[in-house]
Amino acid sequence: SRGALIVAACLALLAAQALADVYVLKDGRRIEGTLVKEDQGVLTVKTGVGELKVQRSDVVEIIAKRTDAQEFEARLASAKSAEDFFQAGEFARTKRMKRESQKAWKKAIELDPDHVGARGALGFVRYKGQWLTSEERDAQVRSDEDLDMATRGLVRYQERWVTPEEKANLERGMVLVNGKWVDFAVAQRQLGLEEFEGAWIARPIALARRDLAALKPLVVLPMEFALSADAMVAGPYPKPFLEAITKQMDTARLWFDKAWNSQPGLALFGGRLAEIYAFGSDSTPYSATIAHFASLTTTLPPGWAEAVADSHGFFWSDPYPLSSARQWNRGDVDIVGHCLHHWGHLLVGRLGYDGRLFPAWYEEAVACRTEFVGHGRNAVFCRGSLLVVGGGTFAKGAEVTASPGLFREGSWRGYLKAALEQKAVPNFDKLSQLEFANLQLVDIAAGMAIIEWLEKQKNGEGMRAFHNELRHGAPKSPERVMQAAPVRRAMYDRAFLAASGLNMRDADQAWRQWFLAGG
Predict the structure, then answer these.
(1) How far apart are alpha carbons 289 and 309 in whole angstroms?
(2) Among candidates 202, 175, 180, which has minimal Cα distance to 191?
(3) Are 52 and 45 in contact (CB under 8 A)?
(4) Which of 118, 226, 332, 379 is in Cβ range 3.0-4.6 Å of 242 for a Cys bridge?
């Protein structure tokens, strides 16, 4: 009967379901799963993503196929050896059946405790003939290491092994340097570091920043700073403004080192950064810091602090190079020029420094050449009123004076050419006797030309040779000019001969001819 046929069909479907779990639909889709029930022509199939309902009339074929779980159980049931169980576990692993895979691998090592594959799959490692978990192995390694190191007489300190003596020193904050235990701070200083605001940084930078910090109570304005390889420039200016000055100073330093055959770096400054302070239109910070700066050196004569209070700036080279200047009623370009001008004084003053000073014409010429190399102009000259302090004579510092436009805008050569053609340039012997207060612009221009001429002598060695002779023959500080004419002329004869092979008189004619011929 019809009812019997329906029952028979359902029984056939259920029998097929036991093995057949792939349902092929009329539209080509394939559904893999397990039949849960059939109700009024609708099949409910349990799949990996949940239960799906499918019209029985849409099913064109049911393909017998085991599920992953059924396949695993079949493999597990037929397994006999440790390798069989291992492979069953590998099948489960590829199907992401973690619990089932571990079940099979554990059965494998029950049969063969040394089965490498199963042990590795379960996370065991072999150590000294034993299978251990990674945690057990690490603990055993540490225990063995502890025993071995203890046998050697060592103890653990912060994850490393040291002797009891080393541990005691380390716990006291000591550091081993060249075989000796020293205080941590001493060790850092031996590495060229110095502490600043809780951090150990390069000693030259730390010292310069300490000096700057010491000014803060004296200066009412916020101070920025910029660092170059050999100098710190600081002042109440925007940082980019100060950084631009350091770049111009770097350019000038490269020129100086080449012209004077000087080694680059901080050796010229005794391992310190040069400190260049630039104060703005408010004169109070400049004046307020003079006494402080005076306290940092022992080479200044009595009354120096009072004497420089009315100047635009000052510099000193001992015990390290320092410059301070104020913009006052000048423009920005003038304070830049002032920093570069003093930079020249510091460079030449420190080269071979032995406490003695250079002649005014020479040092001023170098300073003006440095300013010119740095930013292509000359707005600053050390030609202030001569001061008599403590029995010595010296200039107030760089002073801005009304100068011909040619000189200020960088055309000092045109200025000097006109002076030479008018025979307005003094002979060298007269130039060599001038103090800073007596220098005129024509004297400074002549000195700049002599410096440039010396740079070109003896394949670039002439400038340093000339410098060394002046350093060797200079009078004792604070004097700058050798007063005894025969001694002074003999010194310059030696200097010019060392630099160019010419005596003073012939060299004086030679540089003029060279300059008028186009330099």
Answers:
(1) 10
(2) 202
(3) yes
(4) 226
Sign (positive/negative) of CA torsion 85, 87, 90, 95? negative
Q: What is the DSSP letter of 379?
A: -
Q: Report the sign of the C-alpha dihedral through residues 472, 474, 475, 476, in that order.
A: negative
For the chain, state the CA radius of gyration: 45
What average pLDDT does the structure give for the chain?
A: 88
Q: What is the pTM of this model?
A: 0.69
**pLDDT at 210 (0 to 100):** 97
Strand, coil or helix: what is 13?
helix
Is it the case that residue 6 has pLDDT exceeding 50? no
CA atoms of 473 and 463, how far apart (whole Å) = 16
C-beta of residue 356 within 8 angstroms of C-beta of residue 476: yes
Q: Quickly list DSSP for 70-129.
A: HHHHHHHHH--SHHHHHHHHHHHHHTT-HHHHHHHHHHHHHH-TT-HHHHHHTTEEEETT
User: Pick from 122, 104, 114, 15: which is nearest to 62 by CA?
Assistant: 15
Q: Which structure tokens are listed for 90? A: 């590998």
Rounded CA-CA distance 332/334 in Å is 5
Chain centre to alpha carbon of residue 358: 36
Strand 386-389 versus strand 274-279 pairing type: unpaired
Q: What percent of the chain has pLDDT over 70?
A: 92
Beta bridge partners of 34: 46
- Please compute the mean of the pLDDT values over residues 433-438 and round it to a whole number: 92
Q: Place 67 in a pLDDT band, splitting at 50, 70 and 90.
A: confident
Answer whether the bond into residue 302 is a cis peptide, omega within 30°. Answer: no
Maximal C-alpha separation, the chain: 150
Q: Name the residue with higher pLDDT: 14 or 130.
A: 130
User: Per residue in 22-44, pLDDT tens?
Assistant: 889 999 998 888 888 999 999 99
Tokens encoding 221? 């304005």
Cα separation, 348 vs 126, in Å, equals 73
| Count of CB atoms situated within 10 Å of the CB of 313 | 26
Q: How far apart are CA 175 and CA 162, in angstroms?
A: 13
Q: And the tokens for 101?
A: 């895979």
Q: How far apart are CA 440 and CA 434, in angstroms?
A: 10
At residue 383, the pLDDT reads: 65
Query: Band of the pLDDT at 302, cuts 50, 70, 90?
Result: confident
Q: Which residues contact 271 (CB under 8 A, 6 or more apart)?
A: 203, 204
Q: Positive or negative, the Cα torsion across 136, 138, 139, 140? A: positive
Which 8-state DSSP code applies to residue 165?
A: H
The answer to whether 190 touches 182, Cβ cutoff 8 Å, is: yes
